[in-house]
Design a protein that fits this description.
Helix content is about 25%, strand content about 15%. The protein is of the alpha+beta class. The chain has a domain at about 60-175: 2-Layer Sandwich (Ribosomal Protein S8, Chain: A, domain 1), CATH 3.30.1370. A hairpin with a 5-residue loop joins strand 1 (about 65) and strand 2 (about 70-75). It is elongated, with a radius of gyration of 28 Å.
Length: about 180
């Protein structure tokens, strides 16, 4: 920034002569509300649910699905989802489903959800492993989890775990508060 004392008298005169015909703006017109119509916030659109495994039965609750294998109930605060996705919450319990068959994984998850409800846990880390994909997008257990979890009444969200907690082979499960 140039100080006033650094500008010579001659330079000030040149500036004043250049600004002789310049007039200040008299009105303060702002764009009307109508000029903003049609502009919408950049809202993340849900993916085509055909890419995900079909739910076993239609859930009355609405979920938003995304490309990277997560879902959340509509109305969940963005800050909560952001913190969950970035692994900023402390996990209350974890369950390891490595090597389980689907019927074993289901029994273990039902037991886990009952225990979480009993002890009022909110965040569960589920380690499912990357699995053998056999040409599918996800392994068998993760595909099953993405179908089964939205049907559970106390599930709010599922996001992949951060790399320090297992990355693609694990996920965070956010549950409702027990009342």
């Amino acid at each position: 920034m140039v100080k006033k004392s650094d500008i010579s008298h001659k330079e000030r005169e040149i500036f004043r002569q250049a600004m002789v015909n310049i007039k200040p703006i008299q009105t303060r017109e702002y764009p009307s509300y109508n000029s903003f119509k049609g502009l919408e916030k950049n809202i993340k659109q849900p993916i085509d649910t055909e890419q995900l495994p079909a739910p076993i039965s239609e859930s009355p609750r609405k979920y938003v699905y995304d490309n990277i294998g997560y879902f959340y109930i509509t109305g969940l605060q963005n800050k909560v989802l952001h913190n969950l996705y970035n692994g900023r919450f402390k996990t209350d319990m974890s369950i390891d489903l490595h090597g389980y068959r689907l019927h074993e994984a289901e029994a273990a998850m039902r037991n886990c959800l009952q225990k979480a409800k009993l002890y009022q846990y909110r965040l569960v880390k589920v380690i499912h492993g990357k699995g053998t994909k056999n040409g599918q997008r996800y392994g068998r257990i993760k595909s099953w989890l993405l179908k089964w979890l939205p049907e559970q009444p106390n599930v709010l969200a599922w996001v992949p775990a951060t790399s320090r907690d297992g990355g693609e082979g694990a996920g965070y499960l956010l549950l409702k508060r027990a009342r």
